Amino acid sequence: MTIALRRVWPVLAAGLLGLAAVPATAGALTALPVRVAVPAHSQFCAITLGNEGATDIAVQIRGYRWHQDGGTDALDESQRLAVNPAIVTIPPGTRRLVRCSLPEPTGPAEDTFRLIVSELPLADGAAGTVQTLLQLSIPVFRANPDTRAALSWRAAPDGRLEVTNTGTRHVRVADLVLRPATASDSARVKANAYLLAGATRVFAHPDMPPGEIAAIEAVDEDGAVLTVQPERVSQP
């Protein structure tokens, strides 16, 4: 069974920029790293959860294989990760190590997973109070060192841009830079989205007809620029 990955408590902007030393936060709950990189052929990973609040925090940790279907993030419930401990109570000012076990690699392309850390209601909560339960979503990547992202684009029927990752590794696209065929200024589209290997996402773009686009560049989270190749249309 596949479930859509709804938007959960956002990771700090620093975490989105790849600064793994900065913890993801949701209220008093923290997690390090904010993104887990697992060596090729390894089946183990770990995160550290912390409590910066004044009361206990109880959390449940679940892990799933993560893929993108039709431009939407989805989690595969049939391919869960083994997590230990799956439920843990974290006293104030302390940290807990959580280990996870990954399935065997599926092929040459990068394997992608997500750890979902969900805060649980406390049994001794004061009567008449509302508990705001928070959640973190932590990506886990496992890839060979020689895997690479490779991007292509085409105009969707509604005029938006379809960008496909034909490579074997994910890329987090911060911006798309559209360069026109004329001497007019280029346009920049905010993306802020993961594009997994083999996946396609659709992006809106400014008032620049696709026929006027001469080139597209993708700027990743580290500021590196990737050329987005126009998709080749096969002739009948």
Strand content: over 45%
Helix-residue proportion = under 10%
Q: Number of helix segments?
A: 1
Assembly annotation: single chain
One letter per element, helices H and strands E, the order comes to EHEEEEEEEEEEEEEEEEE
End-to-end span in angstroms? 37 Å
Write down the domain tally: 2
- SS-derived structural category: mainly beta
Q: Just give the CATH class of the largest domain.
A: Mainly Beta
Any idea what the CATH architecture of the largest domain is? Sandwich
Low-confidence stretches: 2-20
Shape: elongated
- Biggest β-sheet strands, sense, barrel: 11 strands, mixed
State the fourth-level CATH superfamily of the largest domain.
Answer: Immunoglobulins
Instruction: Give the tally of β-strands.
Output: 18
Keywords: Signal
InterPro entries: Ig-like_fold (IPR013783), PapD-like_sf (IPR008962), Periplasmic_pilus_chap (IPR050643), Pili_assmbl_chaperone_N (IPR016147)
Organism: Erythrobacter neustonensis
GO biological process, one term: cell wall organization
